[in-house]
Amino acid sequence: MVAEFKFFNMGRKAIIQVKDLVAGYGENVILKDISFDVYEGEILVILGGSGCGKSTLLKHLIGLIPPISGQVVIDGKELTDGDEETYQQVLRKIGILYQSGALLGSMSIAENVALPILEYTSLSAAHVATLVTMKLNLVDLGGFENYLPSEISGGMKKRAGLARAMALNPKILFFDEPSAGLDPVTSAELDNLIIHLNKSFGTTMVIVTHELQSIFAVAHRVIMLDKISKGIIAEGDPEYLRDHSRNPFVRRFFNRLPE
Amino acid sequence: MSTPAIHRSHFFEAANIEDGGMVLHLWGRMDADHSSVLLRELDGFFAEAIPPSLAVELSKVTFLDDFGALVLIELKRLMMRTNGAFRLENPSVEIQQVLKTFQFENLEKEATLPKKKKTGVLVRLGDSAIAHVRDFRYLISFIGAIVLALLYVCRHPRSLRTEDTFSCMQRTGVDALPIVCLISFLLGLIMAFMSSVQLKQFGANIYVASLVSLSMVRELGPIMTAIIVAGRSGSSFAAEIGTMKISEEVDALFTMGFDPTRFLVLPKLIAAVIVVPMLTLFSDVFAILGGLLVGVTMLDLTTSSYMSQTMKTLSSFDILLGLVKSGVFAMLIAWIGCLRGFQVQGGAASVGQATTSAVVSSIFLIILTDSMFSVVLRYW
Q1: Residue of B244, B249, B256 with shortest CB distance to A116
Q2: CA dist B85 to B56, B109, B143, Å?
Q3: Bridge partner list, B64
Q4: How many CA atoms lie within 13 A of B74 on its CB side?
Q5: DSSP track, B67-94
Q6: How far apart are CA B18 and CA B16, in angstroms?
Q7: Between the CA of residue B39 and those of B56, B74, B100, B220, what are the distances in Å?
Q8: How many CB atoms neighbour CB B84 within 10 A?
Q9: Which chain B residue lies closest to A114 (C-alpha atoms)?
C-alpha cells in the first residue's frame, strides 16, 4: 500500500477507526484487512473501480452489515461488539445520505426531516417545524415542505435526504454516491453544499463516489479500494495521486485514461 | 479477367475466375435490413456447389456494420468447412476499421448462445432444502421481533405510531367493508338456496336459518373475511414494505435508530387484529340477511320465524369463537405480509413474488389454523 499523507491531519483526532476489517456477505469476502482512520473535520472520499466494494465498506461503517472480522470504532464507541445500546448511541452521532435519498414515500419532506428530531428531542411540534424550515433552507429547499418525495426531482430528493441526515447535527455524515443520477450543475451545487457544511460546522464527511470532478473539488483525502487485491491500494491527496502515484492503475483512474 | 457472370441478383453477382475459384461482388449497404435476405440468397446459391476458393469484392460496398460482417463471417466459415481459400478484396478503410472493431479475424469458430446450465437434481434439492431452513429460521426470528416490539409498546405506549395505525385500520377495515358484506350476503344466499333444495323435501325449511347462521358464524364468515383481507391487505403490506426495502427506506429507518418492526409492522398488526373481527361481525350479519332473503322469498318463511330460529341456533360461544378465529387470522395475515415484504431483495420482480407469496401463504395458514381450531374444539 502506498501511503502519501499531507500534514493536514497531524494532531487531529481519529473519529472513525477501522481495524483489520474483513467485509463481505455471508461467506463471500469482498474486502480483507482494511485498516484506516478518519480524522475529525476532514472530508474523506472512498473510491475505486466498479465492484471494488466501496458501498459494502460504507454499509459496514454504518452498522448495516456485521463484519466477518475486525473492528469499527466511531467516536470511541465500538460499533461491532454487538451491543444494541452502544449502537443506538453511535447512530445519534451520524447521518447518512443514501443513494436515492431514501425518503419515506408516505410522508412529506418536512415530516421526513422532522422524524428524527421528534423522536430524539422533546421539542414541541411548533419548534420542530421551525427547525425543519431552517434545515430545508440550508439545502435550498425552502418552500417545498409539504411536497411528497414522488413530487420532486432526483436532485431535490437528495437535498431533502441530506437535510434529514443533518436533522440532529451529527458529527459525521456518510454519503453513498451523492452525484449518482445528477446533472453536472446540480452535482456541482451539491459539492459546494458539502464544502460549505464542512467549513461551517466542522462535520466530518465520508463520501463514497467515483465522480472524479467531485472528488477533486471536495476531497481532503481519498482512499482507493481495489477489486483484485480486495484492499486499499492508495491513500492521500487526490491531486498528488493523480500526478505522482507509483501505481499505474491509480494514475489511470485519476487521469480518466482507458486501458 | 472478367468472365461471364454465373449469377446475378439484386444483391450480389458471382463470377468464375481462371483458376477455378469464384469472385463474389457485393455492393450497397450491408446492414441489418439487407443482411438476412443476403444470407438466405447466398445460402441457396452455395447449396449446390462450393467453389475451391472465394474472393469477396467489397469495393462497391458503401456501408458495413456487424450485420453485414455476419454475412462475411458466414462465407468465411463456409469456405473453412471445405478447406477452401477465402479472402476479402478491396475493402475500404472504413470497412477495415469496422471489421477490426468486431475482431473479424477471431470469429472463425462457430459460436453458440450459451444455454442456461442446468444443475443436477440433487444440487437443486440441497439448495432448496437449505433455502427452506433459512426461511424457517427467519420466520421464527421475525415472530420474536414482533413479540419484543409488542412488549416494548406495552411498556412505552407512546412509541406506537398511532396515526399510521388508524390509517391502516381505515384501509384494511373500512375500505374492505363493501366487498366483505357483498360476498357474505351472496354466500348466505347461495347456502340457503342450495340447502333449501334438500330440506324442502322433508318440510324442514326452517332449518335453513340454522344451517346458514351456524356455518357462516363459526366457519365460513371468519375464513372468507380473512381471505378477502389477505388478498387486499396482506398483499399491500408485502408490496409496501418490499418497495421500501429496495429503495433503502428500511435501511434509512434502521440507521436513524428506529426499529423497523415497531415502526412498520406493529401499526399494521394492531390495526388488522382490531378491524378483522369487526369485519367478521358484519360478514355474519349480511350472510344471515342473505339467507333471510331466500327464506322469505322462496321458502315461505316469515322474517320473525327465520330470525328466531337463527337466534335459537347460535350461542354466544359460536359468535365469540368466530371473533377469536378472526383475530388469529388477522395476526397471521399481518405477520406473513410484512415478513414477505422484508424478504424482498433486488427489484420489481421480487416485490411481485413477495406479494403473491404473501397472499398464498396467508390463505394456506388461515385454512390450516382453522383446521387446528376444529380439532382442538372437537377434543376439548
Answers
A1: B256
A2: 11, 16, 73
A3: B30
A4: 15
A5: HHHHHHHHHHHHHHHTT-EEEEE---HH
A6: 7
A7: 14, 8, 21, 66
A8: 16
A9: B256
User: Which residue in chain A has the smallest CA separation from B160?
Assistant: A119
Residue whose entry in the numeric block shows the C-alpha cell 436515492: A100
Hey, are the CB atoms on A62 and B258 less than 8 Å from each other? no
Distance CA A147, CA A111 (A): 10
- Three-state secondary structure call for residue A43: strand
Contact B62, B30 (CB under 8 A): no
Residue B279: name the closest of B360, B359, B184 by CA: B184
Determine the pLDDT at residue A107: 92
* pTM summary value: 0.79
Grid cell digits, residue B185: 350476503
Q: Between chains, do B257 and A98 touch, taking CB under 8 Å as contact?
A: no
Show residues of chain B in contact with A103, CB under 8 Å.
249, 252
Q: Which residues of B touch A (CB under 8 A)?
A: 243-244, 247-249, 251-258
Cell of B11: 444483391
- For residue B161, give the C-alpha cell: 405510531
CATH superfamily of A2-75+172-255: P-loop containing nucleotide triphosphate hydrolases (3.40.50.300)
Per domain, the residue ranges of chain A are 2-75+172-255, 100-170
Q: Does A92 reach chain B within 8 Å, measured CB to CB?
A: yes
Cβ-Cβ contacts under 8 Å, B256 against chain A: 91, 115-116, 119
pLDDT, averaged across chain B: 90
| CA pair distance B116, B194, nearest whole angstrom | 53
Residue A120 sits at the chain B interface (C-beta within 8 Å) = yes
- CA-CA distance, B374 to B223, in Å (whole number)? 13
Single out the residue of B334, B218, B219 nearest to residue B275, CA to CA. Answer: B334
The SS3 assignment for A258 reads coil
Q: Which residues of chain A are within 8 Å of residue B258 when distances are taken between CB atoms?
A: 119
Q: Which H or E element spans position B147?
A: helix B121-155
Question: Considering CB atoms only, which of A91, A100, A116 is closest to B248?
Answer: A100
Q: Is the pLDDT of residue A2 over 70?
A: no
Record: contact B252-A119, CB cut-off 8 A = no
The fold adopted by the segment(s) B5-106 is Transcription Regulator spoIIAA (3.30.750)
Are the C-beta atoms of B351 and B239 separated by less than 8 Å?
A: yes
Q: Which three cell numbers stand for residue B24?
A: 463474389
Which residues does chain A have within 8 Å of residue B253's beta carbon, measured at their own beta carbons?
Answer: 104
CB burial of residue B92 (10 Å; 0-12, 13-18, 19+):
middle
Distance (Å, whole) CA A153 – CA B204? 69
**pLDDT tens across B122-159, in order?**
999 999 999 999 989 998 999 999 999 999 999 999 88
Q: Judged by CB atoms within 8 Å, which residues 184-243 of A form the interface with B?
A: none
Parse chain B into domains and list their residue ranges: 5-106, 161-379
Q: Residues in chain B, how many? A: 380
**Euclidean distance between CA atoms A219 and A43, whole angstroms:** 5
- pLDDT tens profile A193-227: 999 999 998 999 999 998 889 999 999 999 999 98
